[in-house]
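Side project, low priority. Logging it here so it doesn't get lost.
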Amino acid sequence: MPEGDTLFRTATVLREVLAGKAVRAARGRPDGVALGKVVGSRVEGVQSIGKHLLIGFDNGLSLHTHLRMNGSWHRYRTAERWRRSAARAVAVIEVSDAVAVCFDAPTVELLDTRALSLHPTLAALGPDLLAPEPDIAEAIHRLSSASRQEMPLGEALLDQTAMAGLGNVYRSEVCFIEQVDPFLAVGRVDLAALRRVVIVGQRLIHANREDPARTTTLDATGAPPGPSRIGRPGDRLYVYGRAGRPCRRCRTPIRSKVTGALPRRTYWCPTCQPAGAGA
């Protein structure tokens, strides 16, 4: 599933080609969203909120998409050949010099813009870590709420109602950086460690918001995210996708395990993050 930084870049690209322009044509699937309602309107703006993307039109409607595992937005020049089959397109917006196409997204809704604050999913989102001034205190408060006390930290970091934007890559990386056991129940995580995890997560996702080559080993200023530099220059990730390979800190083989109601693979170092680390 694309993480918040990917959606931020997607919104930036679509904003560049759509914002301020009149919609010449628009369509969804025959049994899908009635995008014809926005033809003739102008695109007022494009924004990402966590892992959600919103395109607003000046006729009072907004297109909401959530890509989940397989969805993606593409932009094309007029008459340019699409890189995927038209049968997979769930939303198409055409302006004078470009076409924006959403493929395979399971959530595609045309909503009254005034009602966005009442949308059950959007209204429930926690603080967006890519907002100009994210509410870190609120994110920590939600993450440590009574309802999440027994939830493993790694799963809680994926809960978008606690804070919006982090995904599977970041949850493994930030737990490694702070040397916290990702399977430790949130209620057992030291509050200072919990705060560090949230702050590092926000810093890393913000640092990667404009670069598709996601890197978690350096922050936006070029400084290491943890107390000391680990690994070699050019290393992009510490543990994610590196099962069986040596830990960049201690050389122990990285382990991985699939957990959660929506199965996701967690990566960790059993030496740097032993059971209970972070308590």
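Brief comment: The CA atoms of residues 20 and 165 lie 27 Å apart.
Revisit when time allows.
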